[in-house]
Write a structure and sequence with these properties.
Order of helices and strands: HHHHH
Largest sheet: none
Mean pLDDT: 76
Strand content: under 5%
Distance between the termini: 29 Å
Radius of gyration: 15 Å
Oligomer: single chain
């Protein structure tokens, strides 16, 4: 990757790449290829920042309800719930660590 600062999009994509979901991994790789363009990187960062803002307003109960009302099997529903919880914990941990390193943690 070119010499530039790490962004929220980079952190988000790294976490997404670690997902057990093959579709999520493929999506992360496609986005990583696209963000080599500064304009796309800026757009992805805006999307991630907005998603994080909305995440603070979305409770885990809302996510659970959305998964429960899906057409997934019971086993897949449980996997999705656990995947979401793992993703949220990983993102929070990595964001905290990166903000501490950059001395931007409030």
């Amino acid at each position: 990757m070119e010499n530039r600062e790490i962004t929220l999009a980079d952190i988000f994509l790294d976490i997404l790449s670690e997902s057990q979901d093959k579709g999520a991994k493929l999506m992360a790789e496609r986005i990583k290829a696209a963000i080599k363009s500064p304009e796309i990187l800026e757009l992805v960062n805006i999307c991630v920042i907005n998603a994080l803002g909305y995440k603070s307003k979305i409770s885990s109960k809302t996510v659970d309800n959305a998964i429960d009302s899906s057409n997934l099997s019971d086993n897949d529903k449980e996997k999705e719930k656990n995947s979401y919880k793992h993703f949220a914990k990983s993102l929070g941990k990595i964001l905290k660590e990166n903000l501490q390193v950059a001395q931007q943690l409030i």
